[in-house]
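Mods, move this if it's the wrong board.
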Amino acid sequence: MKKEFCDSCKQGSLTFVLDCGFRVCEQHFETVNNGPKVYSCEFCKKTHKYDDCEKSIANKIALTEFKLEKTIGEVENRIDVFNKIKQQKDYFRGKYYLDVRKKVETKKEELLNNFELELNKYFKRVIDNLDSINSYNEEKIKKNTTFSQLDDIKANCDGIMDEKENVNLSEKLDYLERSNQFVNQYLSGLESLKKELDIMKSLEFIENKQLKNFEFKQCFGKFKLGNEYFSETGESDLFKKVVNKENIKKNKNVLELNKETLKDLKLNQILDGHSGKITVLGDLSNGDLVTGSADGLVKIWNLNDGSLKKALPGEGTKIKCFKILPNDTIAVCSDLKRSYSSLGYLNCEMRYSKIRIFDSITGSIEKTIQSPSTISSIESLNNDYLITGHDDGSIYFCNKQTGEYWPKMSKTLHYSTVYSLIMLNKDNLISTSADYTIKIWDLNDKKLIRNFTECNGLNECLKRLNDKQFLTGSQNGSIKLWDIRESNIIKTFESSRREVKDLKILDDDKFLSCSDDGLVVLWSIKEGKIFEERIENSLSTLKTFNNVYFDNKNQIITTYNHKIFVFSLD
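Not the wrong board. Structure tokens:
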């Protein structure tokens, strides 16, 4: 294309010839007041329309020729790029593929470093606990009276054997009988020592063989090509199946629950390992059941075979409450008593609580904390702090690393026992009390922001629904939906007049409830009651349950006195 120059700006580009013969660039045409593009000619002083100029044969040829040359230029540029890829095999690989691969390898190194750091921390914790167990057992053996007298016992036995040959026949029977008594005492002490040594020898490490099931997807990432996402291994179909499987798993609780499911519900097993009434239930991340009892013990159960895995040592009276923390350590609260004299002659008794933080794997105590008063409920604020509710209605903050207690929640406390505490979100705490109130607290300012008094019953059961809403179950059988943005109850669900023992949130709309008479109800927040069915058990004398707990494996755990009854929803 012959380069023509604009008569106005003297630049060479796409130009149009006007009716008057003046030549101008395309960019000199301007739109005025949203009208057509025009040019005010400085030669003929007339206004020329772009549309009219575009219709002339000469200008059409110029415009078409310009577009053709521009397209040919783009084609030639792309051919140059493709020839470069064709001739230089590593060009495309280095510019695109290796760049992505480098990011993947960088992520791998980052994960390896993080995993190694966490693994080393965990390994140190395990070894420290193992060393503590070993030191404890060694110290116990050293303090054993028989262990410290082994040489003396051996010498005494040798002396008895030597002396029995020199005893007169008339005295020999009496001597032998007395010697037998001594030797039997020695044997009893040695047998006791042997049992302690056998316990030490029973220590073993059960290796986890399921490493092939370890999932990296959550921490590694995924690939995207165009508008389609792929799995972490780059397989598109596989990723779709994984996502679909996760969605099915997420909705499993809702899809599989129907009236027939609960009708077929049978008692799977009965566990009996406490000597006192069971007071609190929970479960670890691996599905193991945790129970606290009036006998002062916390026990960990394997629900797959019903075996007792570990009994955590007790201190004081019954277990009032516990909280299973994110790393599967257990913060256990129990009451103790202390006697003291007042005014020099009056004997008084003070009650207080201790928090013992256990390692659920080794059973060792990581920390012991004494509280200002008796604890009735406990919640985890974050990795470093606990929140405790007390029998006197107060709420305290506790640093679980140092054991230091912060000042209690300021002003407008409960007037009686704090039954339940739950974190609704990172800024708000919910508490229920024997004073028939529910309070919403601002954790940043440590002050009350809302007080619900329309409870119509004691609310010991408290469950979080989302960041703004929660459910309560009362002793009169009603379940209520609350919203911290509202001043009144959002909705009330009436089932029976029996105490609601536990609630299980299934999704944003559906939840389960179970009362102390074993009545299980599936609810919809939008529609109300969907269906109900009563748990049947083989014990005709068992009319009510002391505790009901929905665990994370679709099982209903119930207790009566010291026994545990396990029902399955699968």
